[in-house]
Amino acid sequence: MIDTAGSGVQLDANVAGEAKVTGATQSNLLGEFTGRFYQLEQGKHLGANDQNAALVHKTFAEKNDIKPGDKLDITKDGRRVTVTVMGIFSGKGEKPAVLQSDMAENHLITNLAAAQQLTGSQQLTERHISPVNPHQLKSLTDRAKSLPNVDWKNLAWTDNGAVFAGVLQNIAGIQNILTIATICAAAAGLAVLPLVLVFWARGRLHEIGILLSIGTSKGRLSGNSWAELAIIALRLGSVFAAAIGSVASSQISTALTAQTGPNQRTEKTAVQAAPPATYLQAFAFGYVVVLLLAIAAAPRQSCANHDSNF
């Protein structure tokens, strides 16, 4: 075990050799990891399907020459379980340690079944519940508190969403600003694009007149115009929109994360790109708008072409 050097506390021999064992179905959801007190250095986190697996501290692993894949025997009150080291983590606990079992260096994290085998009990000390949709948190809380056969006098329900209230308010404010900006940009585009299409058609009157004079049909000319618009929208509009959107979302996410204080620790994760379906929906909407406006400008283009031939 790692010694509590400098603590000034003389420990009994029966207590000094004990370690802390925590069983979890998903180790990455433990408060030490989500609060960024622990960081996984090697290997992988424990999942719900892992059996007889464990995570150990980096200092403990270095002192005992342990690496991922090695096996450890853990005993408690005559019960014994053998686990395989799946990963190594680093970091310190939230509070200063007095006993060896309180030290992060002597903290062993195992799968839930292994820890229950050591204690000889199937009871849980705590359960973490996370809704898929954060807007369902209130209804989930109400449903949980109304469950029958649950003794809430001996159980405590903790809603850690209040810890992130400041961050959630910032996100809501940014969402409102982006929604207003999107509506304004769309309105400006709808107002300007028809004028652009009309001027674009008028600037090509001579070219259109020559094509009509050699027998090119108006339907083919309209099809060519729509094809050109589609290519411009695909190459320029879509590419620039996707690039600018990715950069803007990354900057906004970084700014929001930077505003979290010491009491609002969050797990550091990479900014994930929007699903491809979201991009496809946005592009499809833009292409439909361009197509409709091109159709609206087509009669003016035809009339202008007809007058030029005369």
Q: Helical amount among residues, as a percent range?
A: 40-55%
Total count of domains: 2
- What is the 3D shape? elongated
Radius of gyration, taken over Cα atoms and rounded to an integer in Å: 32 Å
Number of strands: 6
Largest sheet: 6 strands, mixed
Q: Helical segment tally?
A: 9
Poorly predicted residue ranges:
261-271, 299-310
> Which structural category fits the helices and strands?
alpha/beta
β-strand amount: 5-15%
Element-level helix/strand string: HEHEEHEEEHHHHHH
Mean pLDDT over all positions: 78
Distance between the termini: 98 Å
Membrane topology: Multi-pass membrane protein
GO biological process, one term: lipoprotein localization to outer membrane
Protein name: ABC transporter permease
Keywords: Cell membrane, Membrane, Transmembrane, Transmembrane helix
Structural summary, described in words:
The protein is α/β, with parallel strands linked by helices and 310 residues long. It has 2 domains: 1-122, Beta Barrel (Barwin-like endoglucanases); 164-309, no CATH class. It contains 9 helices and 6 strands, in the order αβαββαβββαααααα. Strands 1, 2, 3, 4, 5 and 6 form a 6-stranded mixed β-sheet that branches. Strand 4 (71-76) and strand 5 form a beta hairpin. Helix 6 (165-202) packs parallel to helix 9, helix 7 (205-213) crosses helix 9 and helix 8 packs antiparallel against helix 9 (276-309). The protein is elongated, with a radius of gyration of 32 Å. The termini are far apart. Residues 261-271 and 299-310 have low confidence and may be disordered. It is a multi-pass membrane protein. One of its GO terms (cellular component) is plasma membrane protein complex. The chain crosses the membrane at residues 177-201, 226-248, 279-298. It comes from Candidatus Minimicrobia vallesae.
